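REVIEWER CHECKLIST
Item 1: Sequence provided? yes
Item 2: Single chain? yes
Item 3: Sequence as submitted:
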Amino acid sequence: MKRQHFSPSASGVGQESCIALIDARFLAWLQGQADGAQDAMRFQLNNVLSGALAHNGLEVAVQRIYWYSDSSDDLVVDGQITRAVQPHSQDGGLSMLRALSADLKRLAERNACEHILIGSDDERLLGLIDDAQLHGLSVHLLADDAVRNMGQLQRDDPGWARLLAQADRRVVLNVQGLREGGHPRHGASSVHAAPALDPEQLREQLNTVINAWWSEEPEDLREELREELQNTRGIPQEVDRQLLLGVRRVLERALSFQEKKLLREMVRDLVLGPQAAQAQPQAEHME
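Item 4: Structure as written out by the authors:
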């Protein structure tokens, strides 16, 4: 039987081409899933990314997806190339950074496409993105809803905000579309929105996730976090991502902007103590 080859230009004649570089771990965070729980999603990822780009005013053809993952899933998906990387817990994302950076550099130097879509929140990519743009490429970044309020994001997560500000476009991903696509052989999965919680129930759920995280933190890391929070109004990016992912698993939905703000305030209250956490913003405001 003759194999049917992937043809990205078949439905995108005349469109500029786009190559996507996707960190599987970051995409798992956007989806609110555990790493490696993305097999079904990968079969419709091309369509979802194309739709997200179009929704943000970019009528481009996704020519290819490079998938950086520490999970050996043995999937062969047309239009996708897997790059094996080390688990983030082992090297802090250095393996993924090197692999993605090398691909970005080669694509820019060879003028392989007009657009690059990056799915990663590693701020160490900042200089490489700038270099690719100087080569003439338009570089776009996947983001969550927090990007709709950049002023608040700059206060809560300045590193992530700086990376997003460097992008030509910030592309908010349709997470619902990813979840509903399903595997082509198994049909679409049915996803229902979780019922809304009243404020006290929400706080209780958040508190459960936060306390579980804090109980697993060794004392030396607790002390480092206390020192860091005394000098900033937000919480560290990695802590924020970990807790938001944990809450999504519990609530089966993403948090709203105000709910995220509440989560971060609760973390600061736990780490610093309520009086210290409240006194610091007031002191900064007086300055």
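Item 5: Key structural point noted by reviewer: The first strand starts at residue 16 and ends at 23.
Item 6: Recommendation: ____
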